[in-house]
Design brief:
GO terms for molecular function: ATP binding. This protein has 292 residues and is α/β, with parallel strands linked by helices. Helices cover 32% and strands 29% of the residues. The strands form three sheets. The chain has a six-stranded mixed sheet with strand order 6-7-8-3-9-10, sandwiched between helices. α3 crosses α4, α4 (106-119) packs across α5 (135-147) and α8 crosses α10. The protein binds adenosine-5'-triphosphate (ATP).
Length: 292
């Protein structure tokens, strides 16, 4: 399975939101990371087939998506950023409704609903009204919906926003288990959501994908650039004008700050092991020449 984006641009009136996306995805989990307004949802919507690019094309296994739209849709599962549920639907009603929209045969749909409810941990709740589901349950119902047609490509737009850590981990495990022999594209600005499960991470800003590589490659790029330093509380505001800070912890009268900088930020600063969150800040703050 190969999903290829060729020269994708998207304009909304005079605003150019996507500025030439060229990349190829194969089986495995890909993370799409970027700040608010980077263009992640716009790209996801184009790949999900609910929006057309202004220019450029999407190819699936070498075929232009626009020449095989129906087949393309049958091969993808899509969980949008905001899903609204009919308040008088039970979880089962919702999945039956989604299965009907996907044109699934009834017997097959019922089997899929039972199987997926089990894998997302909702079997005991399918009879309950969606309106009483927690945020995590609604997102799990959403993923079950996206998986109904056993898609080869699963596209998830900020699936874990608003979930507590327990639900986020549960969600991540479901995605990871599903991703074998499939392509999963997951957009988020929550770095740990993709750090452990993504085969490659694309960092997106201002409508372009700056880089696409593994978490380890991003992290190795900042080896030697992450520091911890002790800063007196009253100097913190001034200190953070000049450097990118990823974390601050009070230690008595002092503040222990985690700094991302190519140069040693103060005489007492000590190098520390970088993580993907540091790399994200480096790409989106330091490389742009601005402090956080
Ligand atoms: N239908 C639209 N009409 C006009 N502008 C739009 C439309 N959809 C998105 N935009 C603009 O395109 C830019 C990118 O939006 P998009 O939602 O794709 O970004 P994002 O990276 O997903 O952001 P977030 O993380 O906040 O969801 C934003 O400036 C947004 O206002």
């Amino acid at each position: 399975m190969k999903l290829c984006m060729e020269g994708i641009f998207k304009n909304f009136k005079n605003k150019e939101v996507l500025k030439g996306i060229d990349t190829t995805l194969e089986n495995g989990v890909y993370g799409l990371l970027g700040p608010n307004g980077a263009g992640k949802t716009t790209l996801i919507r184009i790949l999900a087939g609910v929006m057309e690019p202004s220019q450029g094309k999407v190819l699936i296994d070498g075929r232009d998506k626009s020449t095989c739209d129906d087949e393309y849709r049958s091969r993808i599962g899509y969980l949008p950023q905001d899903v609204s549920y009919y308040t008088d639907f039970t979880g089962r009603d919702y999945l039956r409704f989604a299965a009907a929209l996907k044109g699934l045969e009834k017997g097959y749909a019922e089997k899929q609903i039972e199987k997926l409810a089990d894998s997302v941990g909702l079997s005991d709740d399918l009879h309950r009204n969606c309106a009483v589901y927690s945020g995590g349950m609604k997102r799990r119902l959403g993923i079950a919906q996206a998986l109904l047609n056993e898609p080869e490509i699963l596209i998830l737009d900020e699936p874990t926003t608003g979930l507590d850590p327990h639900e986020r981990i549960k969600f991540r495990n479901i995605i990871s288990a599903f991703s074998k022999d499939r392509l999963v594209l997951l957009s988020t600005h929550i770095v740990p959501d993709v750090e452990s499960i993504a085969k490659e991470i694309m960092m997106m800003e201002y409508g372009t994908i700056g880089r696409k590589c593994t978490a380890e490659e991003y992290i190795s790029q900042i080896d030697g650039f992450v520091w911890t330093a002790m800063v007196p509380m009253e100097q913190l505001v001034e200190f953070q004008k000049n450097v990118v800070i990823s974390n601050v912890v009070p230690r008595g009268d002092m503040m222990e700050v985690r700094v991302i900088d190519e140069k040693k930020p103060s005489s007492d600063a000590k190098n520390t092991t970088p993580n993907l969150e540091d790399a994200y800040l480096y790409v989106f703050n330091y490389l742009k020449g601005g402090a956080a």
